[in-house]
Every structure is written in C-alpha cells, then in structure tokens.
Write a structure and sequence with these properties.
The complex is a heterodimer of chains A (161) and B (292).
Chain A (H helix, E strand, L loop, with lengths): L4 E7 L2 E7 L5 H8 L18 E4 L2 E4 L12 E3 L12 H8 L9 H14 L5 H8 L9 H17 L3
Parallel strand pairs in A: 1-5
Antiparallel strand pairs in A: 1-2, 3-4, 3-5
Chain B lengths: L6 E3 L4 H11 L3 E4 L5 H6 L7 E4 L9 E3 L5 E4 L4 H5 L2 H6 L1 H7 L5 H6 L2 H7 L5 H8 L3 E6 L2 E6 H4 E3 L2 E2 L6 E7 L7 E7 L9 E10 L2 E10 L6 E2 L1 H6 L7 H12 L12 H23 L5
Parallel strand pairs in B: 1-3, 2-3
Antiparallel strand pairs in B: 4-5, 5-10, 6-7, 6-10, 8-9, 11-12, 12-13, 13-14
Classes of the chains: A alpha+beta (161), B alpha+beta (292).
C-alpha cells in the first residue's frame, strides 16, 4: 500500500512535481526520486552532516526532513554550486587547499560553508571550526577544509573572482 | 534507518492543528523542527500513526519584546531566530550565550523552542533557560489553554506535564529588571554535542551585595534543576571564595547526577560544582562591569 501525496519543489532552480510517501526522507527523495546523487547520506540521524542541503536558503539536514515537508520550498544541493568545468569559488578553494580526501563528506561541507559564508564573519579559525562542527570528515582532513573555508571567506571580503 | 509508515497532516491554522491533535492524541506526534524527533522515527524508537506538521502555523515563529522588557516567544521560533535576535541579546544575554551552544548551524536553523522544551532532553539548553528565567509556558488544546511555570513543566528525561492532546504554543520570559550579572557555562566534549553539564546564573547586586540570585543546572538530574538553597546562600553577601564554596556545597545537595555512556555520576557532580563556581564568578564580574 502506498498512500502518496503530491508535492512540488524547486530544486536548484528546476521545478519538480512528484507523488511521495510521507515517510520518504528528503535525502532519499533527492538521490533516488530525482537522481541528484551529489547529496550524500551518512548516518541518517542528523549527526554526520553529509546530507546537508539548503532549505529555503538555510542549511538543513536532508535526512531529518521529510520530502513532503519540502512541498512548496526551494532547495539547493551541491549540484547548484558549479560544474567540473566551472567550479564555484568555494569549490575552487576546496580544490586549491586539498579540502577533500575521499570526498564523502564534501557535499555537506560545501553546503554548510555556503550558509556560513552568507551569515558569519568567519574572522577566525575558531569561528570556522565552530561553524563546521556539525559536519564529520572521517578522513580527518579538517585542517585543509578549514583552510579552504578561510580562503573562501577572505575572497568574499576582497570581492574578487 | 527508515521510519515506519505514518499519515501526514499539515494543518494551516492553530485551531486545525489542535483539532487534529485532539482527535489523534496518543497516536500522533507533532513535528516542528524535527531535529530530535526524526532521528527517533528513523531508528523506529517511535512509530506514531499520525504526524502533524506544525511548521506552517502562522504567528508562532517570532520572539517579541514585551512592554515590561520581557520576551514573548512563539513556540515555533527557531534557535537561529533567537541567536540573531537583538531583543534576546539586549534583554536576555544569558539566553543569547546559551543558544550558541545548541547543536550545530543546520540544527539551529530548524530546531524550535517549543520542540526543545517539549522534547525535554535533560541537558538541553533551552529547558535550562526556561527554568533559570522563570518562564511561563502556554499549552493549548482544542479545549482551551493553560499556563505552566517552567519549574513545574519538566518531570524527568524526555517527560513533561504536557497531555497528549496539548501543544506548547508560547513561552513568556519576564523581565530580568536590574539583575545585571549573568553567566552561562557549559561543558561538552565537542562543540555542538549535548552538554555533559551546564549551569546558568543570573544575579542582582546592590551596594556590593547580592540582592537576588538564580542558579539553574542541567545534568544534575532528570530535568533542569533550580538550586534554590545555593541561591539563598548568596543573599546579602559579596561573592568571594567563601560564598562560592557555600553556594557550591548547597548546590551539591540539590542535585542527583547520573552516569551515562560519557561520564560517571560522580564526574558530573564534580563538574557541576566547578561550573557553578565559574558561573557565579562570571555573573559577579559582569554585575560589576568587569567584562562587557
């Protein structure tokens, strides 16, 4: 039995209308229903941060949101940032500073960083680390991730690139 | 790691939500930010037949300053709203400091004060603040509303006096008046983790003496604890080493910390003593303008 509800969401600027089971997590909706596999799923209980997306502009755990709750909302995933040929300045900073190792946590790190860069001065590494604390990297490559966000924050201030 | 099936309702008004809650009561859960509830659903620790999504109820998402300098907070006010609220920062700096410790960025973006209080995690920051700041909570149901003092609200870990058909709708924090001293001290292993223990203190000082002290402790029992005897021990005194020692000893008799996977009860007891002293020292210094 599948009692579904019709939802309409705008993901990365594209409107999708789908029928979903209420219990379908937004993370599974993005990956399996829409095929947007850039969003990764780690712990499925809101601890690791790998599935972080932007929900109406604010970072949120896709695994702690049901797809049906996103009805009428705007979502941005890592696919919204850039392409391999044309990466966003933040992605470029991650590449430049070796901010990814295995890459599993990267999508979440990037989407959290987008929110951080929007809201916080990020004037110190302590502030950056505090902001990234909800995202786990099991390669433990945090130094490089912090360096990448620091560079992106500085670049944001310059207004260059 | 996937939730069991449920029926999803998304009421558009408070009346509609309360009617749905009244109808389904024991079989239903309200979902607001979902930051504690959805993990429990994903683990199937909970499997409600009906999920009532209250995120879109109008008029419950803001914190506004009351004419007397207090704060009226709608139950759907998200942690990030409190974090960035000028009124919170000016009127209740102790709460502003505490909110920064709640979870992580993405969790503060979604989590709500009504959800945090209703969930009643024993070491969560907002239950502690509600007890420290003598908040009055409004619980509504299809039958009407009642107010509950925060100190009467928490029964134990994840347990409150809310009835299954009731929903928390509002939190009122009365003005702190001229109590200028405050401090919030929390200890957690990692930034954003649940606290192992936390202490909030608010004091009023006149002529170099404490006129009024409030001390609230998280991690000292099944819910937030007001250390009333420790508070009384400070009345009319300057906060010096002897006063700190007396307050710590009084507080020690008012708590019953338990051990868990992280630490033993004894560790927690010791930690709370340290945090009580730190908080009182910090509040005393702030009351004298020693720190901004």
């Amino acid at each position: 039995m599948s009692d579904t509800l019709d939802i309409r969401v705008v993901v990365n600027g594209v409107t999708y209308e789908r029928a979903v089971e209420p219990r379908l997590l937004l993370s599974d909706f993005l990956r399996q229903t829409l095929g947007l596999t850039g969003t990764h799923v780690g712990c499925e209980h809101g601890v690791c941060g790998a599935c972080t997306i932007l929900l109406d502009g604010d970072s949120a755990r896709a695994c702690l949101t049901f797809a049906v709750q996103a009805d009428g909302c705007r979502i941005e995933t890592v696919e919204s940032l850039g392409t391999v040929a044309r990466m966003s300045p933040l992605q470029e900073a991650f590449r430049e500073h070796h901010g990814l190792q295995c890459g599993f946590c990267t999508a979440g790190m990037l989407m959290t960083s987008v929110d951080l860069l929007k809201k916080w001065p990020l004037a110190s590494d302590a502030e950056i680390r505090d902001g990234l604390s909800g995202n786990l990297c099991r390669c433990t490559g945090y130094q490089h991730i912090v360096a990448a966000v620091r560079a992106a924050a500085a670049q944001r201030k310059d207004g260059s690139k | 790691m996937k939730p069991a099936r449920f029926k999803y309702l998304r009421p558009a008004s408070l009346e509609e939500a309360l009617a749905a809650l009244g109808e389904h009561a024991d079989d239903a859960k309200l979902i607001a930010g979902g930051q504690s509830l959805v993990p429990m659903l994903n683990f199937r620790l909970l499997a409600p037949a009906v999920l009532i999504d209250i995120n879109r109820l109008p008029g419950l998402g803001a914190a506004t300053e009351a004419p007397d300098g207090g704060l009226r907070i709608g139950a759907l006010t998200r942690h990030q709203t409190l974090e960035w609220s000028d009124a919170v920062k000016r009127r209740f700096p102790v709460m502003h400091a505490a909110v920064k410790h709640i979870g992580h960025l993405a969790i503060r973006n979604r989590g709500t004060i009504g959800g945090s209080l209703s969930h009643a995690d024993p070491t969560a920051e907002l239950p502690l603040m509600s007890v420290l700041l003598d908040a009055t909570l409004t619980a509504s149901s299809a039958r009407g509303s009642r107010t509950i003092a925060a100190r009467e609200f928490f029964l134990g870990p994840l347990a409150t006096v809310l009835e299954p058909h009731e929903m928390l709708t509002r939190v009122d924090m009365p003005s702190l008046g001229d109590r200028a001293g405050w401090a919030f001290e929390e200890f957690a292993r990692r930034c954003g983790d649940y606290a192992i223990a936390a202490v909030g203190a608010v004091i009023g000082v006149a002529n170099g003496r404490v006129t009024d002290a409030r001390i609230a402790i998280a991690g000292g029992g099944g819910g937030p604890v007001r250390a009333t005897r420790a508070e009384q021990s400070l009345a009319g005194r300057a906060i010096d080493d002897a006063a700190l020692r007396d307050a710590m000893q009084a507080a020690d008799a008012e708590i019953d910390p338990v051990g868990d996977l992280q630490v033993s009860g004894e560790y927690r007891r010791h930690l709370i003593g340290v945090l009580v002293q730190r908080a009182l020292r910090g509040a005393w210094q702030r009351a004298h303008g020693a720190t901004a």
